[in-house]
Amino acid sequence: MSIFSYQEQPGYFKRLKEALKVTKDEISHQMDQVMGTADSPITESQLEDLENILIGADIGVETSLAILERVREETRGRKVLSGAQVRRMIRDQIGVILQASQEVDPGTRSTTRPRVVFVVGVNGVGKTTTVGKLAHLFKQEGEEVLVCAADTFRAAAAEQLAIWAERTGADIVQQGAGADPSAVLFDAMAAARARKKDVLVVDTAGRLHTKTHLMEEVQKMQRIAAREVEGAPHEVYWVLDATTGQNGLNQAREFFKTIGITGVVVAKLDGTAKGGIVIAIARELKIPIRYVGIGEQAEDLIPFSAEAFVDSLDL
Amino acid sequence: MLENLSTKLQKTLRDLRGEGRISERHIEASMREIRMALLESDVHFTVVKDFVSRVKEKALGQEVLGDLMPGQQVIKVVRDELTNLLGKETIDLKMSKVPPSVILLVGLQGSGKTTSTGKLAMWLRNQKHQPVLVSTDVYRPAAIEQLSIVAGEIDIPVYREDGRDPVQLATQALQHARDMGFDVLLVDTAGRLHIDMELMEELERITSAVNPTETLLVADAMTGQDAVNSAREFNQRLDLSGVILTKMDGDTRGGAALSIKAVSGRPIKFIGVGEKYDALEVFHPERMANRILGMGDVLSLIEKAEQVVDKEQAEQVLRKIQKNEFTLEDFRQQILQLRQLGPLEEIFKMLPQAGPLKGLDKVQVDEKQLGHLEAIINSMTLEERAHYKKINSSRRKRIARGSGRPVSEVNRLLKQYVQTKKMMKKASKGFLGKGLRKLNFPI
């Protein structure tokens, strides 16, 4: 029996589970191999194997060790331990970490109109696709959506977003290549107000978190947003590529510190990558995860649920 | 923050000095440090396991040499072994004897295939080749448009045809290259998951249609443990000939490089180090080993410096420093050269993060400020630049007005200059390493 209740959203859960199937099979298989039908106290070498499994999921050394330390404490002196029991312990630990970060901010949407959502991240994580999918999602929820092509750097980024706008029936504001992203944003905010849009989703250029001048560029955009609409940007979604390793933590720290991200979107979770770095990020920075991307179609972005995520991992 | 491995090892093995041989007992702790560091660098855990046992084998029983500290000795074993694993030497691109050569670029979504295609095309043109590009990405919105724009920016021809079949597009592009006398065709492909059988089969069909001379996997240097899965799958299906590791200009350790090399056996040929199209460098295994170890990349730095620093001028400056005749004009030249080296933060990252240089990679440099410094010195007369003591308060005011900076900044610059002068005098007497002295930093 699961300690969580995710039954309200069976559709989401099923799809997330499908997306994570490869991961799940691999990890539970490994776990079974390590623990087998153990009927003796857990050994150091088993713990080390478990550590490898967690690290293999990109959870990272520090977080993996912390999780296993709890397992060590809880199993101390206990004789009979099955693989399933140990798995449950690890699972619950991860559940607690993710749950804690989700609770920091339950994610109630601002009622300000237009609501302004920034989408940021390093290069190639899937920002434009995420903006397209978010536009679709908000549309489905009955909102009027405007997207803003503020990535004026990458070749054809605006063209790519325009195709997404057409697909999802959202309006788009764009300018020529090389335009000042803040100017595009300014235009988009005026348009969103004039056309009485419910939500403005802003696609930004990919930027490595180590490039100060590019991070400052987003700060400037935030200032302009705040000047034009009260409380804007209401959400700053940071997109993480699920294949990212330990550098994800550096990225998250920098984006969190300089831009103040309000939520994480984990993209590309439909491969074999485990996306375990989100657990390390949740543990250290307590930034809630909002959505996961599980495919290339417009509807392939689903709200994140810690319960479903952990259950699907089936550790 | 992660302490770099070399510092850790030196600490762990400090007590070993004076002992005859490196023994099992000594080495246990350091092997753990090595394991942790590699895992933190995203090297796959199975690769780490093999690696650590090999290092252990090599390090055990080694005599503790007179000059080297035991820590350094183990580091040397680690570094040699890393370099070994990454490939002993730099490997060139193969070119077909009968042109056109075909280079196929494959990889996961967002790894940087299109940007790398542009960069590689530019690199090839600099090597006197005549490349032509084609995109077979008919799936992602505006992907073909993206390559066309990239091609336009670097002024390299691109083959573009309306069509929805990637295999046909590649075949037609090859014919086009032949007809028009291009000697290299670069084929940019759609990003795909390695478990997407349909798209992987499409790549196999493209491969048999155009028979590529090189099939390069474009991989993101920030990739975690999953790097082994995609590299293995791409290699099994396509018989890769090499790898381009992208986004190396961030702060990733790039352990994925090791994983990819270990599971595919294919050499890393290039690394992407920036957003501009000339930011593609030939891969050097020993430098990557240093990066994973956190030991900096002094070699790349020196190479870079040599490109912008006029040797004769540098020697002249060095002589001046030794005689304590380093003037504000020299200071200005230094700033000019420094700015030519590129963003300072990247330069600092190449330095070993240990000893007196520790923490430099965290230093934030405002490039604008360098410009201000330059403007201030530009507003001085030549005489003032040669004799800074002449710059009294009325001259300072004039310089401030001329450069559009506040007097306080002029004062600060003069102070900095005097400090630099002192430091350089010290440095010239051997406080900094050889490599650095060669660079003549005004820091």
Strand-helix topology:
The complex is a heterodimer of chains A (315) and B (443).
Chain A: H1 10-19, H2 21-35, H3 44-56, H4 61-75, H5 83-104, E1 115-120, H6 127-140, E2 145-150, H7 157-168, E3 171-173, H8 181-194, E4 199-204, H9 212-228, E5 235-241, H10 247-259, E6 263-267, H11 277-285, E7 289-293, E8 301-303, H12 306-313
Parallel strand pairs in A: 1-4, 1-5, 2-3, 2-4, 5-6, 6-7
Antiparallel strand pairs in A: 7-8
Chain B: H1 5-12, H2 24-40, H3 45-59, H4 70-86, E1 101-106, H5 113-126, E2 131-135, H6 143-154, E3 158-159, H7 166-180, E4 184-188, H8 197-210, E5 214-220, H9 227-238, E6 242-246, H10 256-264, E7 268-272, E8 280-282, H11 285-293, H12 298-308, H13 311-322, H14 328-340, H15 344-350, H16 367-378, H17 382-386, H18 393-403, H19 407-431, H20 434-439
Parallel strand pairs in B: 1-4, 1-5, 2-3, 2-4, 5-6, 6-7
Antiparallel strand pairs in B: 7-8
Helix pairs in contact in B: 1-2, 1-4, 2-3, 3-4, 4-11, 5-6, 7-8, 9-10, 14-16, 16-18, 18-19
How would you sum up this structure, described in words?
The complex is a heterodimer of chains A (315) and B (443). By secondary structure, chain A is α/β, with parallel strands linked by helices. Helix content of chain A is 51%, strand content 13%. Chain A has helices at 10-19, 21-35, 44-56, 61-75, 83-104, 127-140, 157-168, 181-194, 212-228, 247-259, 277-285, 306-313; strands spanning 115-120, 145-150, 171-173, 199-204, 235-241, 263-267, 289-293, 301-303. In chain A, a hairpin with a 7-residue loop joins strand 7 (289-293) and strand 8. The longest helix of chain A is centred in the first third of the chain and has 22 residues, at 83-104. Chain B has 443 residues and is an alpha/beta fold. Helices cover 55% and strands 9% of the residues of chain B. Chain B contains 20 helices and eight strands. In chain B, strands 3-2-4-1-5-6-7-8 form an eight-stranded mixed β-sheet, sandwiched between helices. At the A-B interface, helix 3, helix 7 and helix 10 of A face helix 2, helix 6 and helix 9 of B.
